[in-house]
Specification:
The structure holds two protein chains of two kinds. Chain A is an all-alpha fold. Helix content of chain A is 34%, strand content 2%. Chain A starts with a helix and ends in a 5-residue tail after the last strand. The chains are: A mainly alpha, B alpha+beta.
């Protein structure tokens, strides 16, 4: 009996700690900018057969509800919805489907935001602090259900135009060709 | 001893509440004056009623006890009440109820007349219209004009002419805020997707501080605004200056500062009329150098404070929408000179 309650207590504290991380709000980041985006590759083709660096496969903001909602806010503030609409795409490709032209990994999404891409995606280098670009990248991945549903945003400030990010079924990402 | 100190402290707090630059009991306009007199009327009436009620209770307790202390105390009251006594009690209760009803009617009437007086400015045709939009956590002020080119936007520091009715159209860009300049008028909520109005008039020139009065997030307490009431001519010259867009910077260093502004994240959120910067998410900075305070009126507008604000706003106002910026020291210096030159 004692062992059971101890187990429950430990379980409860672990859950508590985990939920703290979900809610953690970091306003100040150190350092405000980090470089290195130029080393992220967005293709599977490499000269000499092997990649120089692997793009980052994790983004701690994807587990943090505050960062994801900040990403969602930035998605509107930075006019991403001007081309990508609410994820369904318009002038720009859809972000809520399973197709990724320049890679689906967090580092690759980040690189696409910072570097810009052909056919209209502007570069946000020096215009968006790196941590905000990471928040945005986390939100972009949440649009196709690639982040944990307990951290993804559950509603919009405006009229809900699609299923909320936290109830989006995860898509299985696949490589797509750039628009011709 | 401690009780006395607490009492002195409480009295000092009360006294502070009656004066000062942001006190509702220190009115500087006819409307705040009406609100203040209504407040004093209710306050003094309640003080009198309170003193009388507590006094009656104390007298009752003391008299009862004294009677009980006497050796030949009368027998405890029987179940049948004394008719004369009952009659007296009935008169007292009826009188108290009557007085209460009269007081409530007086309150209602004065509240009604005060409300009418507050609303009397609403029909003023010569009113100056200023559209205030509440943002987390700053105030956008747009001065409307029938000539579109005379319309301009500024932030946090709102100049008004003395003696002229001002119509404030209140809106919110995100959550509910509340517009409150205690020395000029009462509160008015700013509701997202809904336009509300408030009218006020400043009787004498001065600087009147205000504050968001509806909890709106991390920096709610630091969401201050300032209204500067000026004589007509001063206001007009300020307005003419504000309408002008920023000109081409005369010196190389200022040009560099402008380019730093345009090449970095500043341009994504801020507007400087006369340049390509047209962001609407943060305050309009076309004349930021002319403002006395920064960061929604919590730090002085001095180059050092401005530098601190640009580099690390999250240290000054944690949670504010403006991100930290990493700038080359020479770029920062040029940017500061450029911003301070925007008079």
């Amino acid at each position: 009996m004692l062992r059971l309650s101890a187990c429950l207590l430990i379980l409860a504290s672990v859950t508590l700690v985990a939920s703290c991380k979900r809610e953690e709000r970091t306003f100040r980041v150190e350092p405000p900018y980090v470089s290195g985006v130029e080393k992220i590759s967005v293709t599977n083709l490499f000269a000499g057969g092997a990649p120089a660096t692997q793009p980052a496969t994790s983004n701690e903001y994807e587990e943090n509800a505050y960062a994801l909602t900040e990403g969602k806010r930035l998605y509107g503030f930075m006019n991403c919805n001007g081309c990508h609409a609410n994820g369904g795409g318009g002038m720009g490709p859809a972000l809520m489907d399973d197709k990724w032209i320049y890679g689906d990994q967090p580092g690759q999404v980040f690189a696409s935001i910072i570097q810009g891409r052909p056919n209209g995606m502007p570069s946000f280098a020096t215009k968006l602090p790196d941590h905000q670009a990471w928040q945005l990248a986390a939100y972009v991945r949440s649009m196709s259900g690639l982040v944990k549903s307990d951290a993804a945003p559950g509603r919009s400030d405006h009229m809900q135009s699609r299923k909320a990010e936290n109830s989006t079924e995860p898509e299985s990402p696949k490589q797509s060709r750039p628009p011709q | 001893m401690i009780a006395r100190r607490v009492l002195i402290f409480a009295l000092a707090l009360l006294a502070v509440g009656c004066t000062g630059e942001q006190a509702a009991l220190n009115p500087a306009g006819a409307q705040a004056g009406r609100i203040t007199s209504l407040w004093w009327l209710i306050c003094w009436t309640c003080v009198v009623v309170y003193v009388l009620t507590i006094g009656a209770i104390v007298i009752g307790v003391v008299r009862k006890r004294r009677r009980a202390d006497e050796p030949d105390a009368p027998a405890p009251p029987t179940t049948r009440p004394d008719p004369a006594r009952e009659h007296r009690a009935r008169i007292i209760v009826a009188a108290a109820v009557g007085v209460t009803v009269v007081i409530l009617f007086v309150f209602m009437f004065s509240d009604f007349t005060a409300g009418r007086a507050l609303a009397s400015l609403a029909g003023d045709k010569s009113a100056l219209t200023i559209k205030i939009t509440g943002h987390q956590w700053w105030w956008e002020a747009r001065y409307e004009d029938s000539t579109t080119s005379n319309t301009f936007t500024t932030a946090n520091e709102i100049h008004i002419p003395v003696g002229r009715t001002i119509e404030f159209q209140l809106e919110s860009a995100d959550v509910i805020h509340s517009f409150w300049v205690p020395r000029l008028h009462g509160k008015k909520d700013m509701i997202p997707g809904h336009s509300t109005r408030t009218y006020l008039k400043a009787d004498k020139p001065g600087v009147y501080y205000g504050q968001c009065a509806e909890f709106c997030g991390h920096q709610h307490a630091n969401m201050r605004l300032v209204i500067i009431a000026q004589p007509h001519e001063e206001f007009e010259s300020w307005r003419t200056a504000q309408i002008r867009p920023a000109g081409e910077p005369p010196f190389d260093n200022l040009k560099r500062g402008r380019d730093v502004f345009l090449k970095n994240s500043c341009v994504m959120c801020h507007t400087i009329r006369g340049t390509t910067a047209g962001g609407r998410l943060g305050p309009d900075l076309t004349h930021v150098g002319s403002r006395k305070l920064l960061a929604s009126n919590i730090i002085p507008n001095k180059p050092g404070h401005l530098a601190g604000w640009i580099l690390d706003p999250q240290k000054i106002k944690p949670g504010v929408r403006m991100p930290q910026n990493a700038l080359d020291p020479h770029d920062l210096r040029a940017l500061l000179e450029f911003l301070e030159s925007l008079k």
